[in-house]
Amino acid sequence: MKKHEARAPDFLSEIEKTKVLQEAKCFDASCNNPRDCIPVMCKVVYLLSKGEAFTETESTEIFFRACKLYQSSNPQIRKMLYFLLKEIRPKESEVFMITSSLSRDLSTSENSYFKASALRVMAKILDPTMLIQMERFIKVAIVDSNDNVSSAALFLGLKLCKTHLEVVKKWVTEVQEKLTSKNSTIHFHAMLLLYEMKKGDALALSKFFESMMNLSLKSPLAQTQLIRFIRFSLKTSKFETGTMTNIEKFLTDSLKRSQDMVVYEAAKTICEHSEYMQGYTITSALSVLQLFLVSSKVTTKFAGIKTLNTYAMKHASYLTDSTGEYENLLTEQNRSLATMAISTLLKLSTDSNIDKLLGMISNFMNEVSDEFKIELIESIKVLCLRMPHKHQQLNKFVGDILKDEGGLQLKKIIIDTLLQLFDSLPQAKDTILMTLAEFSEDCIYENLHLRVIHFLGEHGPNCKNPSRLIRFIYNRLILEKPSIRAAAVSALFKFSKIKELRSSVMTLIQKCLEDKDDEVRERAAFYLSRISKNDFDRPSLPIPISKLEKILAHCKNTGKGFAFDIQVTSEVKEEVKKAPLPEKVNTSLFSNIPELNALGQPLKSSNNMSLTEKNAEFVVNCVIHYFTSCQVLEFKINNTLSDVTLSGVTASLHVEGTTLEGLLRIEDGILMYPSQTIGKNSSGVSYVVIKKLSGSRKASVPTFLKYKVTEYQGDTELAMFDDEYQIENIPIELA
Amino acid sequence: MGVLFSRLFSTLFGKGEIRILILGLDNAGKTTLLYKLQLNQVIETVPTIGFNVETVNYNNLQLQVWDLGGQGTIRPYWRCYYPNTNAVIYVIDSTDVDRMDTAKQEMITMLQESDLKGVPLLVFANKQDMPGALSEVQVSQMLGLSLIKNRQWRIVKASAKLGEGISEGLDWLIALLRDS
């Protein structure tokens, strides 16, 4: 009967959660019948994959029912059960119910299918306590002679890397053993896993690369991935010259492989990191990419031209000779290919062929999708900067794209490009302003529109023919919605700086006093009064906007603990006034500790807090400097005794049971910079850096100073010992 | 229809498996008992997180024996396994006098479940091979077994390690299940 149902076309629509939950009771039967259970399990999986919402009780119920199926050793039921368990994703508090069963599958089962499946289930549901129990089984499974088991174990390792790297690192010998496996999947996974283990450490990584390159990987996937890893690593790490020579040789060899993907990755890596490569290596990489262009496969062609396009500027001198090859691509049916070719040609173009090229592009511009248009805009920008005298044609071209239909992303990039060109090409300013003004006539994206209008207001008054722009802005007042009208009023006001236009501008703004919208009317009134007072400059803030933004962002992130205070902001402003070059402030702020100076300028610094009595033996003051990522506690210690020197002064903060001390990396949360020796009757500074984590709160933390005391009688050293000294609690923000 | 028939068939000819739950506090010896039954040997056990299930052939009868973990965190989940249970074996560590009361409470909670209504209960006063083990009479008193009126029950002194008392208890249980 069931079989017939299964074939009926509307079978799926008949599957209902409540019904299936009832049917699942058959899992409880003391003797499971595969014919009963498997269809029900399928239905549950179907519901789960469809995204049907199971309440907590329902999913618990289904999970426990399903667990009972473990009693059956029927391979079909078991197969489906593993599948089901992966889909159910049991709650953390319940997952342990199958721990014992899974570990039995791993440890005692002879069936390698069960073993492999158990490992794959674990990859989905493993929790930390389970991991401790399973660790040794996983380790054994990695070197299992059955490829399925070994592969599943390696895959589990890869999953765990994200959460339990330390545990995974212990399996390094087992994983290394699998590198020599004949099975290419295992080989590939073993390599991925080893990379994950080593990637944190540059030295280990370079050794890893060396050994992998010597291994001559047979699987093309593995080799491709290895080249990718090399490319990623070169971005951040520096390798020794010997290693670099080997890498270069390895990449050159890879260029000769028969698989396109290996060759492609190698060529791309060489192009991206050409600064490490010899001239002939780069040449051969580029010629390989050019060979791609005549391949019969479209994907290969595309890969070739895209990469050439990316690095065209970098290696222009070599590529200009062979522009003919790219021109051939222009006739391609595939427009994406043609666009990439055009983009490359534009980057490589010269005075003589630019007009011809632009003509060609216009022909198929409307067939090209937004993302390729963006690519073209990028090329045009580069070109504009390279050939300023051609800016008229290029601007017209960009303006045409701007007029055409297009998504926000495209328009935004065009506007960005125009604004950048505006800054760097003085001779193009008027043209660009006109393009923007025309664009404002029919812009459908509000934010972009506001930006354009603001820009016109800022820069319009300085152009040759400001009255033309006013016409465009005035049109906005008549045609657009309130937010745009308000922006237009502000922009118009800017033009009143020009004496000849002032009275006309005033007339225009006066009309806005009758606008329906409050904001527009208020702005109009405000600006009119400013014009009548001859007040045309922007009202100055007590603090630079960028700084204000930073402080506000900080307030927002820290929540209540850090109330916005204009006093503080003006203090910061004072600081800037005193020292016009902010870097200088830092240099003096954190004397000779480069790591601290690298943090830049603090968002805020607290007041000087006195942590001891005024007449104590050691007078300690503390200033807390707040940065976005951390806080630096600056302790100023004044030694008032004439027979004692202090050295290596650090502060140790006792935070709820744990003591923050010791010299660790910033990432670990705390960093200490002990003071230099503080002489008799003199003072010194010690720094403590505390990493700030999200969701921080304020706490008053008991603090001790720790230091080495050296006692003197006259100039002779009497004794030296470690000591500590409790000072007042410090209010800091903690996670 | 076919399914129904096969079920009927199996009940008639006694081929359906008898489902037995082994419960008890942690470290009572449940897993040792299970594998003593199945393999007739004492295996090295680790605390059971979750459950073990084995089919045991006992006097030509197929017993499906579930051994559930006894740790405090797992006990709340016992009830998920009560439906379709034919008998409960409750294992007591006879040397663990301190936790006898906990064992009693857990047992009472278990017996109140409607899924286990009328299900016979066999208590093993386990670890009799250990010095200081209480006798089955003492254990019975401490658990208040005599108060159980609504089901068949029996307590047997046993040592899962040595295999003593197990068959005595099971024979009683099987005979009972056959009759019903």
Automatic annotation (TrEMBL), chain A:
SUPFAM superfamilies: ARM repeat (SSF48371), Clathrin adaptor appendage domain (SSF49348)
InterPro entries: ARM-like, ARM-type_fold, Clathrin/coatomer_adapt-like_N, Clathrin_app_Ig-like_sf, Coatomer_gsu, Coatomer_gsu_app_Ig-like_dom, Coatomer_gsu_app_sf
Gene Ontology terms: cellular component: COPI vesicle coat; endoplasmic reticulum; endoplasmic reticulum-Golgi intermediate compartment; Golgi membrane
Name recorded for this polypeptide: Coatomer subunit gamma
Quaternary structure and partners: Oligomeric complex.
Domain (Coatomer gamma subunit appendage Ig-like subdomain) ranges: 589-732
Gene Ontology biological-process annotations: endoplasmic reticulum to Golgi vesicle-mediated transport; intra-Golgi vesicle-mediated transport; intracellular protein transport; protein secretion
Task of the protein: The coatomer is a cytosolic protein complex that binds to dilysine motifs and reversibly associates with Golgi non-clathrin-coated vesicles, which further mediate biosynthetic protein transport from the ER, via the Golgi up to the trans Golgi network. Coatomer complex is required for budding from Golgi membranes, and is essential for the retrograde Golgi-to-ER transport of dilysine-tagged proteins.
Main location per the UniProt record: cytoplasm
Signal sequence, start to end: none
Organism of derivation: Stentor coeruleus
Keywords assigned by UniProt, alphabetized: Cytoplasm, Cytoplasmic vesicle, ER-Golgi transport, Golgi apparatus, Membrane, Protein transport, Repeat, Transport
Domain of life per record: Eukaryota
Subcellular location: Cytoplasm; Golgi apparatus membrane; Cytoplasmic vesicle, COPI-coated vesicle membrane
Family indicated by similarity: Belongs to the COPG family.
Domain named Clathrin/coatomer adaptor adaptin-like N-terminal: residues: 17-533
Pfam families: Adaptin_N, COP-gamma_platf
UniProt GO molecular function: structural molecule activity
From TrEMBL, chain B:
Alphabetized InterPro entries for the sequence: P-loop_NTPase, Small_GTP-bd, Small_GTPase_ARF, Small_GTPase_ARF/SAR
SMART domains reported in the protein's UniProt record: ARF (SM00177), RAB (SM00175), SAR (SM00178)
Entry keyword Nucleotide-binding: yes
Keyword Magnesium in record: yes
Binding site for Mg(2+): 31, 48
SUPFAM superfamilies (UniProt xref): P-loop containing nucleoside triphosphate hydrolases (SSF52540)
GO molecular function: GTP binding; GTPase activity; metal ion binding
UniProt entry keywords in alphabetical sequence: GTP-binding, Magnesium, Metal-binding, Nucleotide-binding
Family the entry assigns: Belongs to the small GTPase superfamily. Arf family.
PANTHER family membership: ADP RIBOSYLATION FACTOR-RELATED
Entry protein name: ADP-ribosylation factor-like protein 1
The species this protein was found in: Stentor coeruleus
